Amino acid sequence: MFSVENLPVLNSILNATSAILVLVGYRFIKIGRREVHRACMIGACCVSSLFLISYLTYHYYHGSERFQGQGWSRIIYFAILISHTILAAGVVPLVITTMVRGLKGNYVEHKKIAKWTFPIWLYVSSTGVIIYFMLYQIFRIQ
Ligand code: HEM
């Protein structure tokens, strides 16, 4: 049975999917495939929105989870977590602005902001997956 306790694994799948879509979308604009670039980026936005809903639902019902690793792993974990959290908040307006400029056909301005949105979005979604593994799999006792 699917329960709130299964949401972290769903969240990490959604994060990995959006990272892949952002990366693939980037490759497609590099070879001039505008329509596929557009589709991948819209797809990544939808997947990231689903992630946000699922993430908030999990934390509403479950609260926060304590990291159980010790020593160096704590320093690495919190460095990733803090950078991930700060950039995750910042990437939302960046994605919205990049998307609006792309959809309106304002490509010169789109490209200017997209060069920031692309790596930050990729960092946020891929570190989301790393955080999941560190918190729920690798360093979990019991
Ligand atoms: C938030 C979502 C998006 C991101 C992160 C993004 C990312 C990028 C990046 C990084 C580039 C520059 C590639 C390079 O270095 O040459 C680019 C270019 C471009 N994007 Fe997007 N994109 C997004 C959404 C869209 C959408 C919805 C469209 C709609 C058609 C679009 C159309 C284009 C076009 C036409 C270019 C080429 C601009 C040019 O070279 O003059 N993008 N995008």
The structural domain count equals 1
Bound molecules: protoporphyrin IX containing FE
**How much of the residues is beta strand, in percent?**
under 5%
Helical stretch tally: 4
Which radius of gyration do the C-alpha atoms yield? 17 Å
Runs with pLDDT <50, length 5+? none
Average pLDDT taken over every residue: 96
Q: Descriptors for this entry?
A:
single chain; 142 residues; mainly alpha; Four Helix Bundle (Hemerythrin (Met), subunit A); 4 helices; elongated; binds protoporphyrin IX containing FE
Task: Explain this structure.
The chain is built from 4 helices and no strands. It is mainly α and 142 residues long. It binds protoporphyrin IX containing FE.
Task: Provide a compact summary of the structure.
The protein has 142 residues and is an all-alpha fold. The protein contains four helices and no strands.
